What we know:
Elements: H1 16-44, H2 50-128, E1 136-145, E2 154-157, E3 170-172, E4 177-184, E5 189-193, E6 201-205, E7 211-216, E8 224-227, E9 240-243, E10 260-264, E11 279-283, E12 292-298
Antiparallel strand pairs: 1-2, 1-12, 2-5, 3-4, 3-12, 4-5, 6-7, 6-9, 7-8, 8-11, 9-10, 10-11
Amino acid sequence: MLASSVQRSKSTPYPSKARSALIRRAVVVVLVLVALTLVTISFRSPTSGALHSVQGAGSTALRPFQIAATRVAQPFRDAYDYVHGLASVKAENKRLRKQNAALRASALIAAAKLAKYPDYAKLLHLERSSRFPDGYRPINADVISNPGGPFAHTLTIGVGSSSGVRMNSPVVSGDGLVGIVSNVFPDAASVTLLTNPGYYVEARDLTTGVRGGVVPSPAGGGTLVLSGVEKTKVVKKGDELVTNGTHSARFPDLYPYGIPIGRVAAKPGATDTAVFLQVQVQPFANLGSLDAVAVLVPKKSRR
């Protein structure tokens, strides 16, 4: 029999790609081992050893490259710092604008409150003084609407029946009598001023004791007149007038005694045929510009 030759397959070498991967891995392992060895030697060797000399020489040799790299990177670093700083400045500017707006709003609110402080301070002084009427308590209120013109004689206050305000309650400022409550709502009330046509309040001259009725002047102009004073009575310029108060328990007056009304503005006079003196009175309260008033309410309810 003829022997048939059987060809054996040749051994296939590693592909080139696999060989390259193995070489790279081997190089990485060697480099890691070398790095660990150098680090270990560096830590264990003295500071003036040969290895440190080699490191110093390497650093000196690489110094020019480090300087060049720093100079090349510096413009990019500066540009980044500029952009970052600009963004920070914009954000800070926005925050400061919001803070400034909030401060302006707070300042306006504080200024508005401060503008009303003098009137409230006068009310507090009146409440603590001996002039404040006995048996009454004040209900302080903001004036939310002053008279709208020379022919308007009412104002609106920011308290009403829910705070204890009632009809026909006297209303005062820190300077004197303002008027009387003429309409009441739950949270507001209307006040008729002294200068309103038809207004009347019994008054007394503190100096001479002369009594009469204070009414609006027919000439207008925000002045008053003390009416019903006989020519034989003595009233002088500068005399102060106050409310006369109640003299009969059966017919109580709407106004307690002693509320300042005004001052005699001129020397009283009268014609030969007149029966009564002509007494002009300037009210103490600035009726055209009020920020705060007090409503006087009896501590004990009237029957």
